[in-house]
Amino acid sequence: MSQDGEKEYDIWVLLSIVYHLIAKLRRLELSKHNVLPVQAYILFLLHALGGEASPSEISRYAYEHKSAISDILIRMEKLGLITKSKNNTGGGRVKVKLTEKGEEALQLSSERAFLQKVMSGLTPEKIEQLESFLELMRDNAKNQLDVHDKNFIPPSKVSKHYRKKELMLAKTV
Question: Engineering a disulfide at 59: which of 7, 49, 69, 148 sits with its beta carbon 3.0 to 4.6 angstroms away?
Fold first, then answer.
């Protein structure tokens, strides 16, 4: 650690700025389709999980509290992107399912031209290094938070970059 943690803090600030700029670009890109980034991500998760999941599952994969996910799901249901239904097997468990409109929004939100432009200055080797560094930082943060839940899967593990099989294996471990 550098003197008084200044270098680490500077990097954290830089990382925060980069995140906010990229998030703003994503919001602009998705605004053409009237979809918010968090909604696009939940649609993506639902699709990766076979088209349906419980709110608890979604919250685990999205790194969000159940109450925050619940609020987002309410808005998504009003927009017709998802449906929520109680499981008939008892226990009052709710299942969230993609609708046809949700599938269309997911398809439209798969555009990521902004990200390709932002990362265009990085070589494939630099991208691999960046991914490795970020995964290390993520793992250190999880250790600091004492998060050892085996279902706590990084969002990147749900992307096309990884095989869907890995998601399903990690889910059952």
Answer: 69
